[in-house]
Automatic annotation (TrEMBL):
Region described as Disordered: 312-356
Keyword Endoplasmic reticulum carried by entry: yes
Coiled coil: none
InterPro entries: TMEM43_fam
Annotated family: Belongs to the TMEM43 family.
Lineage of origin: Eukaryota, Metamonada, Preaxostyla, Paratrimastigidae, Paratrimastix
Membrane topology: Multi-pass membrane protein
Protein name, entry field: Transmembrane protein 43
Length: 356
């Protein structure tokens, strides 16, 4: 943390009274909105979603049948809402900027963080001998990681706490075009709703591909799933910043300058992926070729149903990752044929471009 300047402003009693009246009026209006309009609106939306989900579920649930276990029987399931379980097999999915690829990814999400200054302040109000309001404001600046660049243009000391706005590779995501689960094909529209929640620690093959990627010019892999790009200011930028600091009177050196964990303008990147070894899908089989699509109720709600014994999802996601369940009791319906119990795939830690 760095300590910034202290500023002092004065208001006469009349000016302070007008200011307080204006502030109170705004607060009353905002309070009325948040205490009345917002709760009512949220309640109505929540109730509408619950009602739509409930109606859709009870409409779709009786239609669900165990899916086909082989390609020969697919044609007889056309038009039905099917329950499918198994190991997903997507086509290779890549983040081409970083060369991160795998034939096990259903989704990949690039998350970018920026080392930036943020401005804070504390205020103290007092009155002088003439009854004027004296406001003393002390500025502070902290340096840390943020999910988006922070503009320093309107800081009290913008040159001493300059935030470079570089963003060579913004946050981005990709979804596999499709994935096969048994004899079925699950399209990207369904796969897009599965969470990418596992931190990717690249395999050797992925790091080799990264070193040949466009991002390798600026980034290096530092371990624990993070790629790092240190900011390097040009000579002209350094001269301009020094001149600006001199003009604003901020050439001081503080203890916080030696305790920084990053420099303003540094960027770090990590990836989250979805590559479950086993999924459960509830969707509508569109034709005899095994292509699946969303199961949509008559009210337009996209239904997703979890396996027995697990709560129904209100989010409507028809893909549920998990681990292979134990064989069901003999008096329960069998959703996959004997011998089709999914097996674990070797991924070289995460999965590689050659699928090894």
């Amino acid at each position: 943390m760095r300590v910034g300047r202290t500023t002092t402003t004065y208001r006469t009693a009349e000016q302070e009274a007008r200011h307080q009246k204006c502030v109170q009026t705004i607060l009353y209006v905002l309070a009325a909105i948040f205490m009345i309009a917002v709760p009512i609106g949220l309640y109505e939306v929540e109730e509408h979603v619950k009602k739509a989900a409930s109606e859709a579920f009870y409409e779709i649930e009786p239609q669900v049948v165990p899916g086909a276990t082989n390609e020969k029987s697919l044609a007889s399931f056309a038009g039905h809402v099917v329950h499918v379980t198994g190991t997903p097999n997507p086509a290779e999915l890549c983040d081409n900027d970083f060369g991160v690829c795998s034939n096990t990814f259903l989704r990949v999400q690039r998350n970018v963080e920026y080392c930036q200054w943020t401005e804070h302040y504390t205020e103290h109000k007092d009155r002088d001998n003439e009854g004027n309001t004296v406001t003393t404001r002390q500025y502070y600046y902290t340096l840390g990681w943020h999910g988006s660049p922070v503009s320093s243009l309107f800081f009290n000391q913008p040159f001493a706490h300059n935030n470079p706005q570089r963003n060579p590779f913004p946050s981005a995501g990709a979804v596999a075009a499709s994935a096969t689960v048994g004899p079925y094909t699950v399209p990207s529209t369904i796969l897009a709703r599965i969470d990418a929640d596992r931190l990717l620690e690249p395999s050797r093959d992925q790091l080799r591909d990264f070193r040949e990627s466009p991002a390798a010019r600026d980034f290096q892999y530092i371990g624990r799933g993070y790629f790092y790009s240190p900011y390097q200011a040009s000579t002209m930028s350094k001269i301009a910043q020094f001149a600006g600091r001199a003009l604003e009177g901020s050439l001081d050196i503080q203890l916080g300058d030696f305790l920084k964990s990053c420099e303003a303008g540094d960027i770090r990147v990590h990836f989250k992926v979805a590559d479950p070894e086993y999924v459960t899908v509830v969707a509508q089989q569109q034709s005899g070729n095994g292509m699946l699509n969303d199961a949509i109720a008559s009210n337009g709600y996209h239904v997703g149903i979890r396996p027995r014994g697990v709560d129904i999802t209100s989010a409507g996601s028809p893909v549920i990752p998990g681990t292979p369940p134990p064989p069901p009791p003999t008096n329960q319906p069998q959703f996959q044929s004997p011998g089709q119990h999914p097996t674990s795939r070797h991924r070289n830690g995460i999965g590689s471009k050659d699928g090894g």
